[in-house]
Structure formats: C-alpha cells, structure tokens
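Morning F.,

Quick status update on the modeling queue. The single chain you submitted on Monday has been processed. Sequence for confirmation:
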Amino acid sequence: MINGLPYVYLTFKNGYAIFVIMINTQMTIAEIAKVLGITRAGVFNKLKQGIRDGVIKATQRGRSYLIEVDTLPEDIKERLKAERDKAVASVLDKKTGRDLGGIEKQLWQAADKLRGSIDASEYKYIVLGLLFLKYVSDAFNQRREDLGKRTADPKDKEYYISNEKARTTIVDDKDQYKSEGIFYIPLKARWDYLRDHAMHHDIGKYLDEAMDAIEAENQKQLKGVLPKIYTRTPLESHILGELVNIFSKIQFDHDLKKETDILGRTYEYFLSQFASAEGKRGGEFYTPRCLVRLIVEILSPYENVRIFDPACGSGGMFVQSNDFVKYNKMDAKTLSFFGQESNPNTYKLAKMNLAIRGIDGNIQSGNSYYEDKFPDLRADFVIANPPFNAEWDPKKLSDNDPRIKYGSPPGSNANFMWIQHFVHHLAPTGMAGFVMANGALAVSGREGQIRKKMIENDLVDVVVAAPAKLFYSVALPVSLWFMTKSKGGGRFRDRQGETLFIDARDIFEPISKRQVIFTDEQIKKIANTVRAWRGERGAEKYKNKPGYCKSVKLDELVKNGYVLTPGRYVGVAEEKDDGVPFGEKIKKLSGELKEYFLEGKELEEKILNNLKKFNV
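Structure tokens below.
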C-alpha cells in the first residue's frame, strides 16, 4: 500500500517501470479513513445516512462495513482519486526506470509501516512467507503460460497438440513443472486467487490454506517448512490484505529471471532489515552481506564442488557462493550445498531463501554439536558464521568423537568445538572460511592448547582482523579465519609453514553510528592481498606492508605463544615523512603546549571568580 491505496501494481516492459495504481472496488471504513487521513468515526458520520437509505451499497462486517466504492458520494470518490494521483507521484520518481535498486527499499518501507506493535522477530515470518508465496506462484504461472503457448504452436514439434481440449492435459500435468525445478501450485494457492481475496475478512485462513496446499503438492522439498501462522497472527485482516497488495507490485514482463533476481534481493534486504530491528538476535539468522562476500571472494569457489555450512542461518553463505560462481561465468547448477541449522524457524527461512532463488540444497534441521547430520561429508569448502562464545555440553559427545581430534573445549565456550567441526568436514584439499569472535585468537587454557595443535599441524592459512560494528547493533569485534589441510600447492603456490595476517580493523565505511560495512573496493583490496600472497595467476606480487599485512613463518608463531592476533605481527604502519626536521616539530609542539597551559590557567581563574560570587 502506498499512501493508503490498497492495490498497487508494478510491471516492467522493455526494461522500464510502468506503474498502474487503482482503488479497490470495495473498501472498508478503516481503509477509506486511512486514505483520506481522517478518523473512522469521521468517515462513518459522512456515510451513515447514505448506507441507511441504501444509496451507498455496504455489507456489514463485524462492527464495520465493506463499502462499494462506485456508490460513494462524488466528493469522496474525487478525494480518493486525488490521493491515488499523489501515490503515483510519490512512487514514480526520476530514479525509477532501468534502475531497480530502490524497489526493495520501497517495499520494505511500505511493509514496515504496517507492522504496528508486532515484534520484528514475529513479523519477519509473516512477511517472508508472503514473499516466498509470491515467487513460487509467479514461477508456476510463467511455466503454465509457456506450456499453453507451446502446445498451441504448430511449429513446436515437441509440445504441439491440435486438439484444444487435450492441451489442458499437458498444461495441468504436474511433472511438466517439477521437471523444470518449479513447484506445482494448486489453484487456491496461486497469487491471483489470493490477491482477489486480499481484503476478505478471512484472508489469514486463505493464506494458511495456500501454504498447506503447496506443502502437500511438494512434500519432498517443503514438508513442514512454510509458515502457517496467518490465522492466529495479531495483525488485523485488512493489514494482511494490504501486505498481499504490496507484494503484488512485483510483476516483470514475463521474465522470470528478472523477477527471481528482484525477489531474491528483496528477500535478502528484508532479512537484513529484520536483523537490524532485532539487534543482537538478528545475528542468529543473518550475516552482513559484505562480510559474506569477503569470505566467498577469498575462498573463490568453482564448479562441481561441495559447499557446507553447519550453522547456515537463513542461507546467505550459499546464496553468495552461488552468485560468485555465476558472476565468474561458471555453471552454478553444478554446486552441491549442504547445511544444518539448529533453530527450526531459521531453518525454514533458509529453505525458502534458497527456493526463491532456484538453488537446490540439502538443508537439515538439528544441533551440529550433538547431532551431526552429515557425518561422512568431506566438503571442498566449509563456510560459516557460528554462534560466538556459546555454552554447550561436552558430556553429550562420545570420547571417540572424530571431530574433537585436537581436544575437548570447555562447556563454557564452544568456539573451538565449531573450529574442529569445520576442519573435520574438510576434504583433503578443502578450505574453510568462517567468522569467529576475537577471543579465540589468543585465549589460553584448554582452548589455547587446541589452537596450538592446529597451528603445529599447519592448518591456519589466513587470519583477517575485521572492524567492530559490522553486525547489527553489536559492537563485538570479529576475525575471519581461513584454514586448509593442504598448503602444499594445488590451486595455489606452496605455502607450507606460512600464515598470512591482515589487519583490516581500520578498513571500513560507516553507514550509521552503530554500523560499518566493507565497500566493494575494500573487499577487493583485502581479497587481492590474499590472492597475491597465494601466488594466483594474474595477481600482483605480494609484499608485507607494516600495519596492514604480513606473511609469518611457524617459528615466529611459536615465539609469540601461538597467538593469532594479526596486530601482533603486522606492526604499525609507517608514517610518511612530511619533510619537517624533528627539532622544529618539538619546538612547535612545545609552544602549543605552553599556550594550552596559559589558557587552562585563565579558565581556572574564571571558574574560581564565579564560585566566589556564590560565596563558595
């Protein structure tokens, strides 16, 4: 809804945005009040006589009425039309056209206004479920329309059927959809059907039934995944209907690829906004995109590999890996994704996130500590952002659990349980890249002993110190670890006995007082530093840079007590010589210091004189 108008469609033809905004044929008293900017009582007082006389056609709904818009007084219809025109002007700005970048923000702003007092942690399942429903329905409709055209085209030797009635056999054949990786959508779950009932008082029931119907038809991929929460949500029915109408804006001119992209971007943007709204809890299901991009850029996945995330959250690591492979002109369909997530609701978000982008993945629900769903998996890439400093129960593991090869971490902190879990699941030539709390870099005790053994086994490849405030509302500084069982050549040069340290704590772009990001250029700089150190083809020659990066031998790590803090090794950046002799600098600084002392003394005297006035 924009400026209170329920039906807003956005279509794309030939790459340009075309907006069509229209008023519903029926509106509630509340909806009319919202559009006109007056109270419900004010609207009712204007309309009650017309309703009683039968001039205004209205159906009673609870304590309110559903009004036939065409029967409203002319002055009110004119005001509704004027508000519609304002809505067009507010949306159709100069930036709209080929640039799609603002659409997800507009959708978020519209959806967020409807949230009211509902907690973001609850609202996200309502909104993201609708986004998923919109995508699978549109994908189905696109395929259905394509089948209709092909079965009617005499030139199409594979699909053409001369008998018009017989064509429906192909169009309605479920296998024609599932064979193309498209979910079969029953009639009552199709978006057009739901949109037609958007302002119905039982829209929540329609939505829950739609989710049930889709799961029933696609049990292998979606059983128990979709949210059936719309009947019992505290949102009023007209708000749910308005959400349906908001997402009806996204319609691309029969180009499913474009719609998949914008829906995927919108889903990710909404995840990030919900993470921001939830603060610290948001980090449980969403890792900032710039951080994921940096990890993926350094790992550089390629075709025909297995990618594993045992703390997969909403699936962002998979999405970015998929995008990286496609961007580099490789076939992303050859990637195999494996994931595990302990939070049942977050697990569902991940399943929907992958489905909305057409990504196949084996995602399992369960606690990775105690119930490893992939015990025999040895992945080419392990990529993760696990919970930091979490408590766990080592007693639940058997003494011969193969994952704790380097020692059992204390129950007060599972960081090194996660790190060993990642290493255990690596293929002989695999690489792991993950986010870790900075405490793991230098902690002593049992965890320090585990870190020592891993360093002695030459598993640590690269460590990057990241800036604080990368996560929403959490200032906790983190580091990025990259580990491998094979530094002896292969994709890169022989790096045995070496570890690269990068201090990127001062490399960031602030976007608010509470949050910073890595820009594209900053990601490129850090990733290219790693590529140069690994001796990749086309990369620049690597050089140590004080204050930024240093390649360190094992004996230096031993001398420093097996601590992995990058700042300890890279040192301090060299200051540029400004050409001013040291003696002159001291003389200047001494003069400035004397001035400050004099100013301080004057200020002290003024304060004492003011205090005397109060007989202090």
